[in-house]
From TrEMBL:
PROSITE patterns: ABC_TRANSPORTER_2. Gene3D superfamilies: P-loop containing nucleotide triphosphate hydrolases. Pfam families: ABC_tran. The keyword Transport applies. GO terms for molecular function: ATP binding; ATP hydrolysis activity. Keywords: ATP-binding, Nucleotide-binding, Transport. This is ABC transporter ATP-binding protein. PANTHER family: ABC TRANSPORTER ATP-BINDING PROTEIN ALBC-RELATED. SMART domains: AAA. The lineage of its organism: Bacteria, Bacillati, Actinomycetota, Actinomycetes, Streptosporangiales. Residues 5-230 form the ABC transporter domain. SUPFAM superfamilies: P-loop containing nucleoside triphosphate hydrolases.
């Protein structure tokens, strides 16, 4: 399967602080990928490394088979919308589109004009006079009209109200269906990822904790609740992700491909938010293992 992004032992250090370390990932093409993790986990650093805005301290990364930002042709294949949905406040909407046409050899002027009209944006309006949701939509239009093979979005809806977030994500979904490109979208709002992403990467403690297709991840993770039991008494194929204990009860989140037959446990399904929070929790000593990549 073709990969849009591959990282091996990737790390980025600022002085003595590691923003990202030992990051290994292989993101297949054709997905809307959700990159989720707590603030400070390294999401923005990973995306900037993928966009060619940063150079790694250790390890390597390839995007669409090439070095990020290595050549003008490589840059043309990747779109990037940063967290603050950057636009030039003094330029009008129409001037943004003309600038995009000059900077991007694959620019789709017809698509950009059609989208601006459909959104009801006034081409003569300066970006500084637009609402936050409108600025985000303008930034997304610039990213889409570039006609990238991979679109990277770094928490583009973090500052938007719920209605603006919904409209932004709806527009993104429609564009991915129509133009068939890959997306990597970072967010700390799991509900947004659950709405549009079919592949998820959990980044915590500056490392990838788990990665895989959303449906597969949810099918192989379970919550077990029952009488208190030490983790070393669980079957070897039940890998502990997180654990909580009281004097009489244990609650585990485990991953396994095998059926769970032990009648002592009450087994419940996880939501995507449950799964993400389990991996963001401090790892138990029972399962300090390499990051899991769940494939079909």
């Amino acid at each position: 399967m073709t990969s849009v992004l591959q990282a091996q032992g990737l790390g980025k250090r600022y002085g003595r602080r590691w923003a990202l370390r030992e990051c290994t990932a292989d993101i297949p093409a054709g997905h809307v990928v959700g990159l989720v993790g707590p603030n400070g986990a390294g999401k923005t650093t990973l995306l900037k490394l993928a966009g060619g805005q940063l150079e790694p301290t250790t390890g390597g990364i390839t995007v669409l088979g090439g070095r990020p930002g290595g050549t003008p042709a490589q840059l043309a294949r990747v779109g990037f919308v940063a967290q603050d949905t950057p636009v030039y406040t003094g330029l009008t909407v129409a001037e943004h589109l003309r600038l995009g046409a000059r900077l991007n050899p694959r620019w789709d002027a017809a698509m950009a004009r059609e989208r601006i009209a459909r959104l009801g944006l006034d081409p003569t309006q300066r970006a500084g006079r637009l609402s936050g949701g409108q600025r985000a939509q303008l930034a997304l239009t610039l990213g889409l009209a570039k006609r990238p093979e991979l679109l990277i979005l770094d928490e583009p809806v973090a500052s938007l109200d719920p209605l603006a977030r919904r409209e932004f994500l709806q527009g993104l979904m429609e564009a991915t269906v129509e133009h068939e490109f890959s997306v990597v979208l970072s967010s700390h709002l799991v509900s947004d990822l659950e709405r549009i992403c079919d592949y998820v990467i959990v980044l915590a403690d500056s490392r990838v904790q788990v990665a895989g297709e959303t449906e597969r991840l949810l099918a192989t993770h379970h919550r077990l609740t029952g009488p208190r039991r030490d983790p070393d008494r669980l079957p070897a194929d039940q890998h502990v992700v997180s654990a909580r204990h009281t004097d009489r009860q244990s609650t585990y989140v485990i991953r396994t491909d095998a059926p769970i037959h032990d009648p002592v446990w009450t087994v419940t399904r996880l939501s995507l938010e449950d799964l993400v929070l389990a991996y963001m929790d401090k790892p138990t000593t029972a399962d300090r293992r390499a990051p899991l990549e769940v494939r079909r």
